[in-house]
Amino acid sequence: MAKRNSKILPGAEAYRIADLLHSAAIHLLRTVRAQDRSAGIGPAQLSALSVLVFGGPRSLKELAEAEQVRPPTMSRIVVGLERARLVRRKVTDDKRRMLLEATARGVKILQEGRRKRVEMLVRALQEVSEDELRAAATAAEFMRKLVGKLS
Amino acid sequence: MAKRNSKILPGAEAYRIADLLHSAAIHLLRTVRAQDRSAGIGPAQLSALSVLVFGGPRSLKELAEAEQVRPPTMSRIVVGLERARLVRRKVTDDKRRMLLEATARGVKILQEGRRKRVEMLVRALQEVSEDELRAAATAAEFMRKLVGKLS
DNA sequence: GTTAATTAGTTAGCATAGCTAACTATATTT
DNA sequence: AAATATAGTTAGCTATGCTAACTAATTAAC
Asked: Which of B22, B87, B132, B142 could form a disulfide with B81 if both were Cys (CB 3.0 to 4.6 A apart)?
């Protein structure tokens, strides 16, 4: 039952899990996005901002890598965050680079987004067992690791 | 430990789980999308096609509801699927409605996408324990239920 | 030290995907 | 018959993804 490494999986089971994860990710994001839209911030901006708030300032390239997008994509995301005054640029010795950091407003907006998401979650959790909740935490962690292995 | 209903959650834990799920969903989709792009199909098209293949034919409005998007959004997704000859329209008695159904090609493409995703997953699972795998399955199921409660 | 190569970021242009508002066409209700 | 409701589309906005091609700055080569 608790065998350490499973080198081979039954195909049907792997398919099922892949589909479940994919579908769950799509629908979770769609639902959450509705909340975030009220803050006037898209999911990619929110996620990038989150990296800066919890991970500290970094360059555009580093942020792009953390978010698994290409530099031009992150460049535009940052433009949006700057326009909303959620992120600011700082010059560095290397004049090609920039350091991106969240503004106080950025921190506040992020926490507000978290608050809304968590309120949704808590509402939904009213009838959910603690077992399932623990499973969710474990699996979110698993998905994070999984994506790391995929990239 | 196995208390049935948790009416109130410690705030910090709920925040953490909400963030983990959000972040994991974003990054999982970004990674998987790279695979799907090679099939020339976007994630929304793939997800809608999946509903038609596994759930059977239905109207545009029903498909929009299943996918939690607005009718104009689904209208455009369907145009893309039709252009790629993955979906076809059937007329009904009610001439306002249409029935959308997957073509043979649509079924094939979907299974191909599944194959690619599952190959990624299996590769990544080489060093993952069965415990974590079970946790992933449980949590994907949890996320699905959670989204149902949120919508 | 000047030139070449590399690195950081942006711009331009394309596609997908989300939304609302406003429209057409058909069905249903009054 | 007329009003209302329903199904889907069109138009137009924004956000996000990409590649290719560009500028500017730094580092490496010679």
From this structure: B87
